[in-house]
Amino acid sequence: MQVRIGVQNVPKEIVVETDQSADEVQEALAGALAEPRGVFVLKDRRSGRVVVPAERVGYLEIAEDERRGVGFGSQYA
């Protein structure tokens, strides 16, 4: 799934491809916001991590992967 993170005072958003579920991402942010000086950590698909101070997260957009058909036959299924 694709997660877009808007960080306060940063003009460009962070885009992360992750294997975590939408609920896991949302819980990770909620947990980080509950702690003083909490840090939001998101694992990407290439075994890397994105680390953002939770208090600086402006928005979080979670988009499920779309299953796309291939070829002309997929439009008739």
Structure description:
Pfam families: DUF3107 (PF11305). GO terms for molecular function: ATP binding. Keywords: ATP-binding, Nucleotide-binding. This protein is an alpha+beta fold and 77 residues long. It has one domain. It has 1 helix and 5 strands, in the order E-E-H-E-E-E. The strands form 2 sheets. It has a 3-stranded antiparallel beta sheet with strand order 2-1-5, with no helix packed on it. It has a two-stranded antiparallel ribbon with strand order 3-4. Strand 3 and strand 4 form a beta hairpin. The chain is globular, with a radius of gyration of 15 Å. The mean pLDDT is 87.
Q: Characterize the biggest β-sheet.
A: 3 strands, antiparallel
Order of adjacent strands in the largest pleated sheet? 2-1-5
- Beta-strand fraction estimate: 35-45%
Please give the share of residues in helix.
Answer: 10-25%
Low-confidence stretches: none
Oligomer: single chain
- How many helices? The count is 1
Question: What's the number of structural domains?
Answer: 1
Q: What is the rounded Rg? A: 15 Å
Terminal residue distance: 24 Å
Q: What's the helix-strand series?
A: EEHEEE
Task: Give average pLDDT, whole number.
Answer: 87
| Backbone structural class | alpha+beta
Q: What overall geometry do the principal axes of the alpha carbons give?
A: globular
Kindly state the number of beta strands: 5
